């Protein structure tokens, strides 16, 4: 009976070791997934910044040509220099789905729109 008990204990220890190895591997994989998700988020932000920069350059080129009427207007207010909102608060209220980031704001006390970071 003692031999059977020892054999059972060895099997349990072996199974425990196998489970611990799987848990360790799972932790490593979860960490890798988190790192990949963070990298994807950084790439997405770079894409957004590039797109904004490109659209801004395109709009500025139209304005420099004196073609304000045909200058491409952004799809949302606050998303471009030709279509600013007076504050980050107005952007949040007008577009609750928008995330924190850079937006165009033209406060009532200013004659120029400025690109600012809004914590939404």
Radius of gyration: 28 Å
SS class: mainly alpha
Low-confidence stretches: none
Order of strands across the main sheet: 1-2
Strand content: 5-15%
What best-fitting shape do the alpha-carbon axes yield? rod-shaped
Question: What profile does the largest beta sheet have?
Answer: 2 strands, antiparallel
End-to-end separation in angstroms reads 69 Å
Overall mean pLDDT: 81
Oligomeric nature of the chains: single chain
If helices are DSSP runs of H or I spanning 4 or more residues, what is the number of helices? 2
Task: Describe what you observe in this structure.
The protein is mainly alpha-helical. The protein folds into two domains: 1-69; 73-120, Transcription Regulator spoIIAA (2-Layer Sandwich), CATH 3.30.750.130. The protein is 58% helix and 8% strand. Strands 1-2 form a two-stranded antiparallel ribbon. The chain is rod-shaped. The chain starts with a helix and ends with a strand.
Keywords:
single chain, 2 strands, mainly alpha, 2 helices, 120 residues, Transcription Regulator spoIIAA
Give the helices and strands, then pairings:
Blueprint: H1 2-64, H2 88-94, E1 101-105, E2 114-118
Antiparallel strand pairs: 1-2
Q: What's the short version?
A:
This protein has 120 residues and is mainly alpha-helical. The protein has helices at 2-64, 88-94, and strands at residues 101-105, 114-118.
